[in-house]
Write a structure and sequence with these properties.
Layout (H helix, E strand, L loop, with lengths): L5 E5 L3 H12 L3 E5 L5 H11 L2 E5 L7 E5 L3 E3 L2 H4 L5 E4 L6 H8 L8 E4 L6 H9 L7 E5 L4 E7 L3 E7 L2 E7 L8 H9 L4 E4 L3 H6 L5 H10 L19 H24 L12 H8 L10 H6 L11 E4 L2 E4 L4 H4 L2 H15 L4 H14 L28 H6 L5
Parallel strand pairs: 1-2, 1-6, 2-5, 3-10, 6-7, 7-8, 11-12
Antiparallel strand pairs: 3-4, 8-11, 9-10, 13-14
This protein binds 1,4-dihydronicotinamide adenine dinucleotide.
1,4-dihydronicotinamide adenine dinucleotide binds next to helix 1 and strand 9.
Length: 403
Amino acid sequence: MPGNVVLCVCGGGSGAHALAGLATQKGVEVRVLTLFEGEAKKWSRAVQKEEMTVVINENNRPPREVMSKPKMITKDPEEAIPDSDVIIFTVPASVHEMYFKAIAEHIGKRALIVGLPGQAGFEFQCRDILGEKASLISVMSFESLPWECRVREFGKRVEILGTKIYLTGSLIRGKSVTKPPLMTLQKFLGSQPILRQSKHFLETIIMSYSFIHPVIFYGKWKDWDGKKVNEAPLFYQGIDEPTTELLQKCSDECTAVAAAILEAAPTKANLSDVKDIHHWYMENYKNEIAEASDLFHSITTNKAYEGLKHPMEESESGMVPDFSTRYLTEDIPMGMVVLRGLAEVMGVSVPIHDMLIEWGQEKMGKEYLVDGKLTGKDIESTRCPQRYGFLSLDAILTGEKSN
Ligand code: NAI
């Protein structure tokens, strides 16, 4: 039992429901902080009469149900954050800034802040908003959520459809002494997924592979004539060879950035575990991939991707691709642009990233890259290091801004 640890779950979506339910059931004092209009009231009302149910689907076993009720559900950071040992963000990356700003003054100096998932640039944003406090607290950023999960009835029922085997996160340890971060989090989740720590926080950023969704989108719709289609094409399993080549080239650009950082700061940034995308697939989906000989088959024969289709906007007369999907609106500003910013600092050219960012920004009506520079009017809505004034590798590694 995690003893007297107080956990604050930030968010009110599927991930927040699953985490709050499971950790409460393990004996942790759980507080839920949701800043989304009306959610705290709705969730509190829902658990007044009856505890919340988490339905857990596990391989080859009948679904299991656990019941629990978080100790506090509130929209007030002053109520939830002081005394919280662990604060976990389980919301889309686009709302992290709102949470950081709302909780900053209330965070204790020994707290552990976790992005579950963090997505690229989580640490830069944290350092920028928390200022000096950021060097005291510990910060973890995980590559994804531990589960595939969906709220079935708000505040009452959430279903875990699948649980990852492993989940990797980075840790920047603060100056204040805290409880062992990974062990503490593992106790909240139970035995699976097995949490692993990356060797450096830049490894998690570089290996977020945030180009995957934009590349697949581009591969399918780059020559689209604007006419409505009758059905949504398969997303991952519908890729072709040219799209696979683009995925590989993006991965090569990421590993080139990692190599440049490792060469420049071999003792400060151990990026020796950064992997090429094909190796990452083989390691993370080894039980799901039927034919792993190359990248194309690792994706198209991946059982986890079966039936997943392109996000589309539907109307009576047909469908069009949905360019407002998180696959673009999050993965470009909170992913590809961050990698592009690292590349710029290291002087590594990443032409395929540039081409995709330029294509995506036009589709979304945004502007990040202008004439090959990260100076577009929407750069403030990204998490690239330049936005925060981290303009050298040293500034990126230490969090101390360049003059
Ligand atoms: P969700 O879509 O269920 O979360 C929505 C919640 O985010 C809302 O209920 C609200 O609490 C908050 N939110 C959204 N917009 C807001 C706004 N403008 N202001 C304030 N709060 C706002 O997301 P979910 O499923 O919990 O996922 C969290 C993160 O994990 C996302 O980045 C998602 O892409 C990722 N993820 C989710 C998986 C899943 O199976 N649910 C699987 C893998 C990753």
